[in-house]
What does this fold into?
Amino acid sequence: MQSEIKFAGFGGQGILLIGKILAHAAMEEGFEVAWVPSYGPEMRGGTAYCTVVVADRPIGSPIIKNPLHLVAMNGPSLEKFAPTVKKGGIIFVNSSLINFGSGRDDVDEFHVPVMEIAQKVGNVRAANIVCLAAFVARSGIVSMETLKHCIKEEFANKPKLIPLNMAAVDAGEEAAKK
Amino acid sequence: MAKVLMKGNEAIGEAAIRAGCLNYFAYPITPQSEVAEYLVRRMPEVGGVFLQGESEVAVGYMLFGAAGAGARVFTTSSSPGISLMSEAISYICGAQCPAVFVNIMRGGPGLGGILPSQGDYFQATKGIGHGDCRLLVMAPASVQEAVEMVMMAFPLAEKYRNPVMVLGDGLIGQMMEPVAFPDHLKTEPSNKDAWSSNGMDHRGSQTRNLVRSLFLDPTVLNDNNLALKAKYDRMRAEEVRSEAYNIDGDYQCLIVSYGTMSRVCRTAIDMLKAEGIEVGMIRPQTLFPFPEEAVGEAASKASCKHVVSIEMSMGQMVEDVALSVLGRVPVSWYGKCGGEIPTPEEIIGVVKARIAGKE
It folds into this structure.
């Protein structure tokens, strides 16, 4: 078993962070993991993406051309990466910023307005956590319990943000059911 | 042992501390600046020192000074920065002091690019500095292996009184993977009285330890370099390390590849196996000394018709591969550089072409 998840959006959306939290959660559940960022001469607000590889055996190539799943947080990311997703994978679309679809009929595509949901639970900055929770609920790559545990660890130094992020997880999980 | 998820660069910094090295001098350069970013915060917590030099030239000599004084010391840099340190590395070799250098390679020549590359193979293994100097060079293929190699580098540098280099590509520095820091790799410097300028009284010695690389008497210099050569020969005898992958079957093609590139090759080998095509691989873990015997032996298998060196450089390691195979079967090269990393599909195409007798 190996899953590859591409998280893509623009700088400041917390893309690299949610990739890291997923990698951490999968590691806690006993999987082999690798988190590979794009790095380059990027500017603030420019593109940001990372790939997380989760496997039940040692990971060979950590460089993935065709991921199983895509989490697209902005339009350019969906346009660029939707054609690369493997058949049968999940394409997550942040419908707060993207008003079109991938055009693929061989994937599980779902749209969630993560920014509006985050606003409702208290702060638009939790949109990335809403997104991560919705994706995890849909894909089942890790349990929601482990995910919550790892988010709490991530925010251990900022405990006052934990209730907001827990609410964001619940809202994201709920959104994935629709 | 509990594992933590860490970026390669941060794990390299922590590994040095866990190995007992509390002196880090450096100058930032992509793609390894996170080592300095991590250690500027972490070193004071453990009573260590991080000092940023005014340039990599200065950093090289800061290492020389600290090593001469008997301190465990290391630096990290990337390709152009290592070039600037190379003069000091030659002096450190000449003076027979231990020090650890980590090179997280980017593309070259010149400023090149900042993406992963393996273009410094020649520099690290054959041309690190002027004179008859060499480094012991280890090449990790995962964050865990980078940690272990950094921790092993300090006692090896002291054993040989010679600089040791850990040579990774940009991806090893940038990627996050689970890591553990094995306690058994923590060691204490045991032999610093043999070289360091720590005081005759302190050592109870009647002889001065001179930290120098200038020997104007040709017979003395010749003797010094014979002593260096004896050390490099001993490295060849005692420190060669490599990993074999899928070499039990009857493979027609053997891949030699290291670092991140070898992981892509591993995926390609698994995919080829699913198609019924057997391909073996030798992954050098030490680049100097090079695993000549392992490569030569694997190439000598009756079924093996071709050996291909797959690198993120323009045909560097292939020379050592050819020297190991000694003409028994054809040897060729495939690679890309500058941040382009050959995909498993490309490697599959190359291997199939080589098996069909096409270069």
